[in-house]
Amino acid sequence: MFHLQDITKIYRRRQREVVAFKAPSLDIGLGEYVAVVGPSGSGKTTLLSMLGGMLSPDSGKVFFEGESLYDLPIAERTRRRRERIGFVFQTFNLVPYLTALENVQVPLFLHGVSKAEQRDRAVALLEQVGLGNRIEHKPSELSTGQQQRVALARTLANNPRLILADEPTGNLDPDSREAVLSLFDNFVREGRTIVMVTHDPAAAARASRRLCLNDGTLVVCEESPVAKAA
Ligand SMILES: Nc1ncnc2c1ncn2[C@@H]1O[C@H](COP(=O)(O)OP(=O)(O)O)[C@@H](O)[C@H]1O
Ligand SMILES: [Mg+2]
């Protein structure tokens, strides 16, 4: 799914350089469930952004399904992103004046799905994330955890083969957290791929592989007690 080659990403600020991410080589296979862990500032979001076609490295190449992502024209890169990648970030970007149902219908509408089918599929997706009884609520009428679940339903509406998630369970209530993680389990069971940044050791333990970052480089993971028990 991904092959990264000689990547460096450096931020320059007032004469100072920060190596945000650096890796000679990294592969992520189809169907893998990867947890990216590491302290704050270690480069997790930088890595995720480069995988998602949103941040070009200063050197090296990011191959996504065989294509060098940053050698594609921007319009093509945007299309790959829209058609193949689902993003689950902490800022959900739900449309505030649309209901949960309408928010989930947006990508279906953009794909030219008929009105009746938009509704049926959006309802089914909201039921999957445990919000079948909240479909007419607007984001401001939902808890943070419920908003995150609406965003996840909207992401799934695109039927992506890859999910990139940045702390998808951060600040969630236990029910929402479990709803998100069990959806991820199912997603991977269908042979699809997830790369998830997380601070949550129990979430990281559910992944099939952990990538540990420190100061922008991949390091050998210290086994957490939770990972050992799993
Ligand atoms: N836009 C930016 N400009 C300058 N430095 C940045 C920028 N984004 C991130 N950094 C720096 O790059 C490093 C990695 O950041 P980030 O990938 O956000 O880490 P993480 O997600 O692991 O907390 C940090 O030292 C951060 O301060
Ligand atoms: Mg981050």
Give the topology.
Blueprint: E1 2-13, E2 16-28, E3 33-37, H1 44-51, E4 59-64, E5 67-68, H2 74-84, E6 85-88, H3 100-110, H4 115-128, H5 144-157, E7 162-166, H6 174-189, E8 193-197, H7 201-206, E9 209-214, E10 217-219, H8 225-229
Parallel strand pairs: 3-8, 3-9, 6-7, 7-8
Antiparallel strand pairs: 1-2, 1-4, 4-5, 9-10
Helix pairs in contact: 3-4, 3-5, 4-5, 5-6
Bound molecules: adenosine-5'-diphosphate and magnesium ion.
The site of magnesium ion has 2 residues, from helix 1.
Give structural notes.
The protein has 230 residues and is α/β, with parallel strands linked by helices. The protein has a single domain (2-95, 160-229), classed as P-loop containing nucleotide triphosphate hydrolases (Rossmann fold, 3-Layer(aba) Sandwich). It has 8 helices and 10 strands. The protein has helices at residues 44-51, 74-84, 100-110, 115-128, 144-157, 174-189, 201-206, 225-229; strands at residues 2-13, 16-28, 33-37, 59-64, 67-68, 85-88, 162-166, 193-197, 209-214, 217-219. The strands form 2 sheets. The chain has a 6-stranded mixed beta sheet with strand order 6-7-8-3-9-10, with helices on both faces. Strand 9 and strand 10 (217-219) form a beta hairpin. Helix 3 (100-110) packs parallel to helix 5 (144-157), helix 4 (115-128) crosses helix 5 (144-157) and helix 5 (144-157) runs parallel beside helix 6. The longest helix has 16 residues, at 174-189. The chain is globular and about 50 Å long. The protein starts with a strand and ends with a helix. 38% of the residues are buried. The model has no long low-confidence stretch (mean pLDDT 92). The structure holds adenosine-5'-diphosphate and magnesium ion (MG).
